[in-house]
Amino acid sequence: MSIATLLLVDDEVPFVETMSKRLAKRNLTVLNAFSGQEALDVLNKEKKIDIVILDVKMPGMDGIETLREIKKGYPLVEVIMLTGHATVENAIEGMKLGAFDYLMKPCDMEQLMVKVQEAKDKKSNHEEKITQARITQITLRHE
Amino acid sequence: MQENKKEQNHVHYYNSLTRNMVLIIIFISFTPLLLVSAILLYYFQNSYHEKVIAHLEEVVEKHKQNIDGFLNEKLANIRILVRAYPFKDLSSEAFLQERLSMLAEEYGGVFVDLGLINEQGIQIAYAGPFKLSKAVYSKAEWFKKAMKSDYFISDVFLGLRNLPHFIVAVKHKWKGRTYIIRASIDFVAFNSLVENIHIGKTGLAFILNEQGEFQTNPRMGISNNKQFYRDFISKKAIEGKITVLEKVNDAGQKCIYVMSPLKNGEWILVYQQDTSDALSDLHTAQKLIFIIFLIGGIAIVITAVFLSKKMVNYIKLADQEKEMMNEQIIEAGKLVSLGELAAGIAHEINNPVAIMIEEASWIDDLLDEEKECKSTKNLDEFRRALKQIRNQGWRCKEITSKLLSFARKTDTNIRAVQVNDSINEVMELSEQRTKYSNIQMKANLTRELPPIHASPAELQQVFLNLINNALDAMGTKGGKLEITSRIDGNYVVIDIADTGEGIPRANLARIFDPFFTTKQVGKGTGLGLSICYGMIKKMGGKISVNSSVGMGTTFHVYLPLPKDENNKNRSSTKKIFINEKEDK
């Protein structure tokens, strides 16, 4: 069974392809998107996505913008920012906007796996709490 | 060749600039000076000339009246004599003698003698100093003329007595016979009337008769050319008015002549003066104006030349400075765009490198799956090669990230910075250079320095500049670079000491000036140290330098501790100092 469902967003197609193969090999379900807008479209279609790995620097809609949209539409989805060195400041800004963490590109696979696991746990935790809250609510309503 | 031509062009340009400025200044200054001088001179000359002529006219008019008065008075004297006394008395020599002495008493020596002459021209009675009784005048010019009118004043002549005199004669009828009473007027007395008129050096007066003969004795230096005077007497016909004319006389001198008729036009009173003498004040003024004009002109020319040269020199200097600045700005601009280019390249390289690393990792992942490969003897080699690819990829990434961190826009946000960290970072960056130039780099960093408030990027820039300068100073000969951090009073002090060529004393004062560089053109902007200076000043610190030629240079950077840290650290600072002393 897959650990989590990931959406990998980067404008560098070869990077995305290889990365998704490697992640898939590590028991993750990986979806691809090559721009911010495409990522939002995929998110709209695929409700199972747990984590978005998002490149900061993209042509058109950039990472920060995409992050804002994701957090607006899908607050429970965790976002890990991926950045080159020059855009560390942007990554930090992303963190302030609610990203789970950031990683430098190219990234170490072990490190990435740890972050993914953490993000998944956080999300599961959140979801569990929400479910619990709803159950409680419903239960209370019935009483 | 081209450089030479350019230089020549410049020289030509500055020369023509100087020339134009000189000409403009001279023209602007001279035009009003010239106009004012000319106009003033013109009006002054005219009015002064008029004034002089008017004055002369007045003098002549007065003397004319004076002389006419004198003559009329003498005539009146004789007429009274004739009318007041009977013929019997007049014909008596004793009576005449008495009258003569009375007149002499009254008028001084004006009347020389008295005489009574009958129709035949024989002097029948005479009183006077000469023996002229019974003298015959029938042939004398004056006698003929005197017989024709009631009274008569003669021209000056020598007469029988052989002395210059003139005669005042009054006709008298007695018992059907005509007699003439005559008196000789002393020439000297009459002459003095005119002689006294002299103005200036050459101004003098004389009386001429119609023939242009002198009736008075003019002072010396007057041409006795009767023709000359007759010319203008006839020309300026006697009109009973004063006439003025200017004429060149025989001596070639331009003279002013003021003339007035006397004795009903028989005589003419002439006043003569050299024009230059009459207008001597005017000439003095002219000379003065000319001298002032000359001196002023020379002053203007000198000032114009001097000022223009000075101005053009300033312009030249400014141009040179501007040119230098332009070159340096272009140089600086090149550096900036080079930095941007480097940043762009670094960023673009980052992505392919990332992909390479991913692909290598992917192969590595796949190798695990390939069961058959496991038995291959080359498996270890594959793994080693993949690892090497990944390692080199990481190395690339590190290089690009370093490049990027420096090419980034300087972050001037001030925060707490560990000076030692900053030094370490910069030293890492410079390591490569020290290796190539055979330089030993050593850091003596005091541990646990309190953080200071500064912009990390600026601090990095300062240190990197100073270290680069130190490395440049040592060149490829090798040497030692020592970086020390310590606390001194309220400052964190960083000493950067090299064993390079040192800075000559003459340059020491200028090293922090912008654009001052001893490097070859294009090698240095001369901005490094001045930027450092500015940044350190902004942080509230200071920078100083010790250098001796051939031994090396040490820069000291003083960075202030934060105010609240000051008090806390004072005690520990002291401790450090004590420790240092003990060490020694």
Name the overall outline of chain A. Answer: globular
Oligomer classification: heterodimer
Residue share in β-strands of chain B: 15-25%
Largest interface here, residues on each chain? A-B, 15 and 22 residues
Tally of extended strands of chain A?
A: 5
| Rg of chain B, Cα atoms, Å | 61 Å
Shape of chain B: rod-shaped
Sequence of secondary-structure elements of chain B: HHHEEHEEEHEHEEEHHHEHEEHEEHHEEH
Q: For the terminal residues of chain B, how far apart are their CA atoms?
A: 64 Å
Instruction: Give average pLDDT of chain A, whole number.
Output: 87
Q: Extract low-pLDDT stretches of chain B.
A: 569-584
Q: Given the helix and strand composition of chain A, which structural class is it?
A: alpha/beta
Compute the CA-based radius of gyration of chain A.
16 Å
Instruction: Give the helix level of chain B as a range of percent.
Output: 55-70%
Structural class of chain B comes to alpha+beta
**Mind summarizing the main beta sheet of chain B?**
5 strands, antiparallel
Counting DSSP H or I runs of 4 or more residues, the number of helices of chain B is 14
Q: Total helix count of chain A?
A: 5
For the biggest β-sheet of chain B, the strand order reads: 2-1-5-4-3
Write the layout of secondary structure elements.
The complex is a heterodimer of chains A (143) and B (584).
Chain A lengths: L4 E5 L3 H13 L3 E5 L2 H10 L5 E5 L7 H11 L4 E6 L4 H9 L4 E4 L4 H34 L1
Parallel strand pairs in A: 1-2, 1-3, 3-4, 4-5
Helix pairs in contact in A: 2-3
Chain B lengths: L1 H83 L2 H4 L2 H15 L3 E7 L5 E5 L13 H8 L2 E3 L11 E10 L2 E10 H9 L8 E6 L16 H10 L7 E6 L5 E9 L4 E8 H4 L1 H90 L9 H29 L7 E3 L1 H18 L2 E7 L6 E3 L1 H19 L4 E10 L2 E8 L6 H4 L19 H11 L3 E7 L3 E9 L2 H21 L1
What features would you describe in this structure?
The complex is a heterodimer of chains A (143) and B (584). With 143 residues, chain A is of the alpha/beta class. Chain A has five helices and five strands; from the N terminus they run E-H-E-H-E-H-E-H-E-H. Chain A has a five-stranded parallel beta sheet, with helices on both faces. Chain A starts with a strand and ends with a helix. Chain B is an alpha+beta fold and 584 residues long. Helix content of chain B is 56%, strand content 19%. In chain B, a hairpin with a 5-residue loop joins strand 7 and strand 8. Chains A and B meet through helix 1 of A and helix 8 and helix 9 of B.
